[in-house]
Amino acid sequence: MASSQLNIVLLGAPGAGKGTQASRIANDYGIPNISTGDILRLAVKNQTSIGMEAEKYMKAGDLVPDKIAIGIMQDRLQDTDTVKGFLLDGFPRTIAQAKALDHTLEGLGRSLTKTIAILVDDDELFARLCGRRLCRGCPATFNVYLKPPQNRGFCDFCGGELYQRDDDKGETVHNRLAVYRKQTSPLIDYYEKAGLLARINGLRTPDDVHEDINEALGPFVGDA
Fold first, then answer.
1. Contact 60/155 with Cβ under 8 angstroms?
2. Which domains are delineated in the chain?
3. How far is CA 10 from CA 95, 129, 146, 186, 214, in A?
4. CA–CA dist 138, 90 (Å, integer)
5. What is the DSSP track for 142-201?
6. Active-site residue 93, yes or no?
7. 114: which strand partners?
8. Active site (annotated) includes residue 76
9. ∠ at Cα 144 (139, 147), nearest 5°?
10. Would you state the pLDDT for residue 140?
11. Residues with Cβ < 8 Å from 22, sequence gap 6 or more?
12. What are 78-97's pLDDT values in tens digits?
C-alpha cells in the first residue's frame, strides 16, 4: 500500500496490543513505527543522560516527564524517514504532549491524519501484562495465562530462559493502568473533539483488530 502524509497516533493502555498493530500498520503503509518506549528502553540500556533520568519513572510504572518525551519526539520527527508519514506508539501520553505534538507538526507544515484508540478492559489488560514472559534468546513472547510455553520457564522455539519485565509485575501493572486512566485516557476525548478518533475493539483477534484499523484508515490512504 502507498500513503501520502499518513500521520498516525496509536492510543491504548499498556497491554492493549499497540506494539503488534503498530508493526503491521508501519509495514502495510511504508511508514516508520516510532515507539517512545523503545527509544527510552534503548536509552536506559545505554545509560545515556535521558535514559538515566527516565529509568526511575519507568521502573515505578510512572510516565516519564513531558519535557523528556516531548524532546525525544521533536528530535525524531525531524528525521528524513518521516517525510511520507509516521506512526507514533506511546506518544502523546498527556494532553500537554498532544498540544506540543500539534505545535511541532504545525511548524513542519504537517498535521495528524488519524488517531487510532485500541480499547481493552482492565481485567484483560492485567492478565496480558502480568502473564507476559519474554525470551532471553529470541524475540518470542509467551503468556502464562493466555499462551503458556510447553516447558514452564523456557522458550518453545530456542529453549531460552523466559523472564518477566519489571514493569509487568503486579503492583507496577496496577500503577501503570491507573496512570493511564488518569493521564492518558483523556486523549481519547481530545482527539474525538478534533474529529480524528477511530475506536477499535481490542478484545478481538489481532487479525480482526488489524482489519478494523485498515478500514478506519482506508479513506485517508492513497492508491497502492
1. no
2. 6-121+183-220 (3.40.50.300)
3. 14, 18, 24, 14, 13
4. 24
5. EETTTB--SBTTB-TTT-PBEE--GGGSHHHHHHHHHHIIIIITHHHHHHHHTT-EEEEE
6. yes
7. 8
8. no
9. 65
10. 96
11. 10, 33, 35, 87, 89
12. 889 999 999 999 899 899 99
User: Is pTM, for the whole model, over 0.85?
Assistant: no
Enter the C-alpha cell of residue 73. 519526539
- Report pLDDT for 183: 87
Amino acid at 2: A
Examine the residue annotation and report whether 18 is marked as an active-site residue of this protein.
yes
Options 114, 128, 132, 133, the catalytic residue: 132
Active-site pick, 114, 128, 133, 176: 176
Residues 5 and 224 sit within 8 Å (Cβ to Cβ): no
Instruction: Supply the DSSP symbol for 17.
Output: S
Give the confidence band of 220 by pLDDT, cuts at 50, 70, 90: low
Q: Exactly one of 136, 147, 152, 165 is catalytic; which is it?
A: 165
**pLDDT score, position 157:** 98
Mean pLDDT of 133-153: 96
Q: Does 132 qualify as catalytic in the annotation?
A: yes
Which of 18, 114, 128, 133 is an active site residue?
A: 18
Q: Residues 59, 93, 110, 199: which is the catalytic one?
A: 93
| Cross-strand partners of 197 | 115
Longest dimension (CA), the chain: 53
| Higher pLDDT among residues 62 and 128, named by residue | 128
Looking at residue 2, its pLDDT comes to 40
Confirm whether 181 is a catalytic residue.
no
Q: What are the Cα distances from residue 113, in Å, to 7, 36, 106?
A: 5, 19, 13
